[in-house]
Amino acid sequence: MKKFTQIICILLTVTSMSAQQEKGIMGYNNWLNNWTEFKPNKVDYGEANQILAGNISVNTKLMKKNIYVLQGNVYVTNNAVLTIEPGTLIIGDFETKGTLVVTKGASIIADGLETDPIVFTSNRSVKKAGDWGGVVILGDAPINKFGNVGSYNLDLDPSLTTYGGDNVASNSGILRFVRIEFAGKKVKGVDTFNALTIAGVGNKTILENIMVSYAGGDAFAFYGGDLNATKLVSHRVVNDDFKFTQGVQCRLYNSLAIRTSYLTSNKDGSRCMEVKSYEKKNETDFTKKQTLVVASNITMLNDSENIKADIQSGLVKEAIYIAETASLEMKRSVISGFNPAVLLDSKTEINNANLKKIKFEEMYFNQCNGNIFTEYNSNNEDLESWYGNTVFFNVMSQSSNKETFIDITNPKKPDYRLQLGKITASSGK
């Protein structure tokens, strides 16, 4: 049985060290600086002086000089454009479950700056995950449901929450240098909102430098569409960090998921990445594209001081779950502190066709209780042999997070880039 290559630092050649430095999130500088906030519950955001409520049916601009409270379900309709100035603060109302919905045909231009991000947060004095709804963006790009139409229901207006169509290159706007904090409210008897829901959105939409913290549901949920996304950060959310479903075609690059052993969903657990082709099989058109995620330079870690003890206590599960018919191609990424690193749906047969759809290359598996398994099957010799082939350059280690990453204990400016021999993971991108 072929094993994943064991890293022995003193034997690494110059060439192999150069390769290692390209794994996980990357950049000559720590791109988390300035615009992120890892302790949002400690920030005094001030009181709102403007109310956002009802429908926004004409082009509207939110100004940095104001602080807005998002009351109830607020819809951007009628092909209107909602523009948000850099540095603007929008506070989701706890009592009315403030939620912003950008309907199909409308768009949002939330184009912040690294030194002046746009912030969505909670209006409670003691902020907690799930204080308000979230941000929902609906477009007319393809999904794999029958009729090419879906509806994001929960307790929203069904006439305003349809998504899907034929426009792969549709443009729902820009989210750049944006933070979304304490979203993901539970709707009694229905489900939980996600912090950011992207449904049927096309590839002209810009999704860059977006941080979700302390969400009650998923951080980033992608339902169909065709997307490029980079520098997304998910921090201590209750459910999944990245959820992909309904035939989404997504290219995800240079992004980060930070989990903790003590936050998890009661329903179906929580993962860094869940890759599915459908939510309901009887609503899915299998003649259409099924979910494909191409991910590179992703860092996924369980931020625990004693990962082995947490795993033994049953507090930690897999980092990635891949359901039947879905495809994931992952390269140059880091998975640290999970049980195991990857879990395949029990319905997925281990054959050449499926192994070609599920690729892991140049990976760094660290402190994981096993690498890649099939659900309910403790024997992973076939998968270990396949992904352990030297042609894939996958490696594994058992180093602490403090040794693995540059500076994850810095409370204000943590650095989650990979560290080997005190050399920063960087490529200049």
From TrEMBL:
Protein name: T9SS C-terminal target domain-containing protein
Species: Flavobacterium hercynium
